[in-house]
Amino acid sequence: MSQLETNKAVQMVNITKTFGSLVANDKVCLDIHKGEILSLLGENGSGKTTLMNMLSGIYLPDSGQIFVDGKEVSIASPRDAFNLRIGMIHQHFKLVPVLTAAENIILGLNENRLVDLKTVAARVKEICDRYGFVVEPYKKVYDMSVSEKQTLEIVKVLYRGADILILDEPTAVLTPQETNMLFDVMRNMKADGKSIVIITHKLHEVMEISDRVAVLRKGHYIGDIATCDTNPQQLTDMMVGRAVSLNIDRPEPENIRECLVVKDLTVLDVDGVKKLDKVSFTAYGGEILGIAGISGSGQKELLEAIAGLQIVEPGSSMMYTAKESDKAVELAGCNSMDIKKMGVRSAFVPEDRLGMGLVGSMSIPDNMMLRTYGNGRSIFTDRKAPKGMAEKVVEELQVMTPGLSAPVRRMSGGNIQKVLVGREIAANPSLLMTAYAVRGLDINTSYTIYHLLNEQKKQGVAVMYVGEDLDVLLELCDRILVLCAGKVSGIVDGRTAKKEEVGLLMTHLGQEAEA
Amino acid sequence: MKVESKEPLFRISKRGAMARGKAWGIRLIAVALSLVVCAFIIFAIVKMNPLKVYGAMFEGAFSTSKRTWVTIRDTMMLLCIAVGLAPAFKMKFWNIGAEGQILMGGIAAAACMIYIGNKLPLVPMLLVMAICSLIAGGIWGLIPGLFKAKWNTNETLFTLMMNYIAIQITSFFVAKWENPFGSNTVGIINARNQAGWFPSLFGQAYALNVIIVMLLAVGMYLYLNYSKQGYEIAVVGESENTARYAAIDVKKVIVRTMGISGALCGIAGFIAVAGASHTISTSTAGGRGFTAIIVCWLAKFNSFVMVLIAALLVFFEKGAIEIASRYNLNDYVSNMITGIILFFILGSEFFINYKVKIRGSKEETK
Amino acid sequence: MGQLIALIQAAVVFGTVIMFGAVGEIVTEKAGNLNLGVPGIMYLGGICGLMGAFYYEMANPEPSAFMCILIAMLCAFLASMAGGLIFSFLTITLRANQNVTGLTLTIFAGGFANFFGGSLNKLAGGVGQINVAATSAAFRKTPAFFANMGDVGVLLSAFGFMVYLALIIAILMNWFLNKTSVGLNLRAVGESPATADAAGINVTRYKYLATCIGAGISGLGGLYYVMDYTKGTWDSDGGIERLGWLAVALVIFTTWKPKRSIWGSYLFGMLFWLYFYIPGLTRSSQEIFKMLPYLVTVIVLIVVSMRRSRDDQPPAHLGLPYFREER
Fold first, then answer.
1. Is residue B5 within 8 angstroms of chain A, CB to CB?
2. How is residue C131 annotated by DSSP?
3. Which of A169, B106, C240, C305 gets the highest tally of CB atoms within 10 A of its CB?
4. Is C107 within 8 Å of B354 when comparing Cβ atoms?
């Protein structure tokens, strides 16, 4: 073993992991050095979390090798990972709410037959003092704030003796002050000789905290670079890649009219965290408004709020005007039933296809009537119209199905999506909202969908297109609204904006550059 | 420190779709296996030739016209309850309270027979009884439904407790209506004038039972599969998020569906009293409210599959009782047999929904 | 005073049956398994304890009290565990629905118990009803050492040993769940199996063990019912089933805390027997009074769901299956 390799805490060699037909990691090689803070950078779906999950025992790689301290290992369970002194702090906390902090820390350890919370508390205090945490050992987790829970997760991992800590987007849920405190703690841990991997897509954080950056894109390892030798621009290029020409048709908008005027829209989640913070914009009939942003920046809440599925805070306003009318109605404060009663014709393709947009156990015709089943006086549902509609959608969008009567759950993701998009467009809407409409679709189908959206645009529909592929957004949309942490960080012209510009807005750097 | 990965002995993965025929094949195998086990048990107890066991069971259920009709009557009873439970279960609302809803319906029917028995002609009398039972059962279903909709109160445990409250109410009325005094039973109500009894149709005492229940079963099939309300139930049962997306009033659907479910179980109580036993007691429901849950669940809420399962269970019940009586043993053996068959059918669903792969030889060479 | 003591004694005897049932079910539910087979499991415990004692007494004309107790308890405990094992195998390994499986278990075990309870003597060539006088007497033997403590002494020493055993098990389980590492892990399994799994806890093994041991404890309630409540005979009027459901109710009443099952079960017993000590009730109005334990449980259920106090909620994953995420 050469001198160089002894410096490596972990080596991952040619790691490949697939989920069905999706290749999440393709022959990825990654080294983690001892005593460094490594940033793992990449867009959503680039395979960062999957790669780290194989280190923490959640998934087994399909092929490839993992070396820890130079020895080849196989990590089949989180327990194996603990034994190798690897600990991961997941984005979704793995804590039991009704237990106290101390109880959560010793869960599954079975150090003593009896639970000795006093000793645990003392040891927790020791760890806290060493790195600068604050954890109240007897506090129940359900009484904790998000940042307290995260601290607890880190202490839990340290208590188990981890030398390699993996943090999956730890700052996503933190305020700037809390982020600073976390970074201080991370520096203390590094000084103590621990290796830390931080998964993130926030460039300024990468620049601030890490020693080295490794970049993944679409499951491939792009490269690594010392933080001091790089700049945000270069990292963005590595992360998003070169602009690719897709030749998506983009007709000029005609007869533009105001369709939806959103003002100061604020939405809180169940924990009271702001998911949307005073969002204001206007969607015009006859254009496609793209919505860009790192996932979880508030796209889901924005569309759901307009559809009446989120409780909006007082002071929010959403004025909707139908295609052929000029009377505006207020949608804020209405639930989906009110909106339906008001006759608002907004179509919505939600991100969660089977959990919200469709009923998995029902056939295509039955799903076609999900939004219209109540029409008419009869106590029975009209079965002819949905059947005709289903046949039309299946034919026009070339849906591959084992048969019209088969439950939609049995179809592939792409075909499910076609059914959903087909239904929403067939409703002849004034406002069409789509969330990740082409996710999981092949190229041809994607173009079919773009074409359908353009058709809607030509008919004067206001189309809102939430997307994750910047190339598509830049070629399809007339304007692009960029969300960052629940705020609008900019609205750019789709015809003139540069990819880098949008990328920077997504990662907050746009504002900082201006400031 | 040694870390090794161990492939589990069995790898279980979810199956895609299984052909309907194959799925039924697996269920049939399960029933057949359960029959073997049952025969073995019966053999162990009474040393009866297992093949003769089945013959005796068949005789128990169908050897005379009267027996056949009792088998049909009891099948209809079980089916009626299962049909009543179907909308609730399709909505994924665990209505364990059929026993109570049946009893409340039964009390209402018995009360009508006792208090207005000879004041009305038969047809209006039966209608009044049916309506009273419907309302009584409906209220018993509505109460937990309301609390579920308002505070998300656990319906499984709530409906379960409602059963016992209903049983005590039944005991109260049994003591009140006791006849003859001191017997602690109500006795046959209106034995002399048969007021409020189901009339014989086409010379069959239980023909009306069949007609009512089959109408309900077909009606429920249509309601669940073709009506707007049935559509709403299906969506709410699948996902509340989807229901809200489709602008369905989830709370209203929960309350309404539980009212319907309770009301139909109340009708079952009406049939049990007016169309079968002509009396009321705490065993009027006799555990069938629980058995029906399993019938309904296994049939995946399809009325016609329910007929099959209900008939199968009642056949075994009658058969087991026949064997027990031949050997002068008590007829609880039928519940035991029912339980075993259900265990097997429940277990068989796993093999329909999952693939099991035994650890391959590849790992062993490592 | 005499009446009050009689009421308390009746309440304790009644309460002990459901205390066993409830404490066992609490252990089961803490692992996230909602076993509606409790009445069935109590049936199994009752009948198998009775059968064990019956065959022992038949084989030995002069049975020893110790052996009577040992055999009956062992049979009851093992048979109930077997019931728990059937439930575990179907719900955990074969992933069948917990509610449906539990109800089926109750149907099966009710049939099994009442069949053998009614037919055992006949099958063994005897006449009349089954009766295990010696074993029942051993179970009902009261301790002497409270004797000279006046009224309190009379009250304390009025019971067979299983009354005290129930108390010990309830306290022990409370200690086990709250103070031991294994108990902590068990609670985590019922609250959030994914978290427990990630912490290296073998969720399947915990669920199996908790369900089987819980069933064993519940089954002792059936045994006590047979040996003490019905004095070593079998009555097939469904008494065990009624009390079994009450045990399920008691679990809710205690908000999943074994400690509370002690006074809770005695309270249920008092509520149940109250009618006996209220003068002027007719036979029919007595029945209304017997509804009290169920009514109280419904009220507790509603109050708990309205208050949403985090400490009084059922285990968060109760009744739900757990499979490790497979993508």
1. yes
2. B
3. C240
4. no
Cβ contact C10:C238 at 8 Å: no
Spatial separation of the C-alpha atoms in residues A284 and A287, rounded to whole Å: 6
Per the CB < 8 A criterion, the answer to whether A90 and A172 are in contact is: no
For chains B and C, what is the number of CB pairs under 8 angstroms? 164
Per-window interface: B 233-262 vs A, CB < 8 A: 234-235, 238-239, 241-242, 244-249
C-alpha span between C133 and C152 (Å, rounded)? 29
Classify residue A439 by burial, with Cβ atoms within 10 Å: 0-12, 13-18, 19+.
middle
H helix or E strand, kind and range, residue A32 = strand A22-33
A3-240 matches A243-345+429-515 in fold: yes
A4 close to B (CB below 8 A)? no
Closest in C107, C283, C306 to B175, CB measured: C283
| Protein fold of A243-345+429-515 | Rossmann fold (3.40.50)
Q: In this complex, do B329 and C115 lie within 8 Å of one another by their Cβ atoms?
A: yes
Q: Which domains does chain C possess?
A: 2-312 (1.10.3470)
**Taking Cα atoms as reference points, which of A173, A221, A172, A169 lies closest to residue A197?**
A169
> What is the distance in angstroms between the Cα of A46 and the nearest Cα belonging to chain C?
17
Closest CA to A214 of A232, A197, A189: A197
Indicate which of A337, A344, A377, A419 best probes the interface with B, i.e. most B CBs within 10 Å of its own CB. A337
Q: Where are the domains of chain A?
A: 3-240, 243-345+429-515, 354-427
CA distance C238 to C244: 10
Query: A309 and chain B: CB distance < 8 Å anywhere?
Result: yes
For A487, the token pair is 């705020």
Q: Cβ separation of A83 and B1 shorter than 8 Å?
A: yes
Q: Which two tokens stand for residue A155?
A: 């202490």
DSSP string, B140-175: HHHHHHHHHHHH---HHHHHHHHHHHHHHHHHHHHH
B183 reaches C (C-beta below 8 A): no
CA distance A344 to chain C (A): 35
| CATH topology classification for A3-240 | Rossmann fold (3.40.50)
Please report, for residues B169, B202, C48, C143, the alpha-carbon distance to residue C232 in angstroms, rounded to integers and kept in the order given: 30, 52, 12, 19
> Contact A480/A501 with Cβ under 8 angstroms?
no
Per-residue pLDDT of chain C (327 residues; tens, 9 = 90+): 678 888 888 899 899 999 999 999 999 999 999 999 999 999 999 999 998 988 888 888 888 888 888 999 999 999 999 999 999 999 998 888 898 899 999 999 998 998 888 877 777 766 667 778 888 888 888 776 666 666 666 667 778 888 889 999 999 999 999 999 999 999 999 999 988 988 888 899 999 999 999 999 999 999 999 988 888 888 877 789 889 988 988 898 888 999 999 999 999 898 888 888 887 777 778 888 888 888 888 998 888 888 877 777 888 888 888 877 544
Q: How far is Cα A116 from Cα A114, in angstroms, rounded to an integer?
A: 6
Chains contacting B with at least 3 CB pairs below 8 Å?
A: A, C
Q: Is A161 left (phi over 0), alpha (psi -120 to 50) or beta?
A: left
C195 touches chain B (CB under 8 A): no
Instruction: Answer yes or no: are the C-beta atoms of A185 and A154 closer than 8 Å.
Output: yes
Q: What is the ipTM of this complex?
A: 0.88
User: Within the 334-373 window of chain A, which residues sit less than 8 Å (CB to CB) from chain B?
Assistant: 335-337, 339-340, 348, 350, 352, 355-362, 366, 369-371, 373
Cβ-contact B119, B182 below 8 angstroms: no
Q: Say yes or no for a CB contact (<8 Å) between B245 and A339.
A: no
Q: Which of C218, C267, C223, C224 is nearest to C245 (CA)?
A: C218
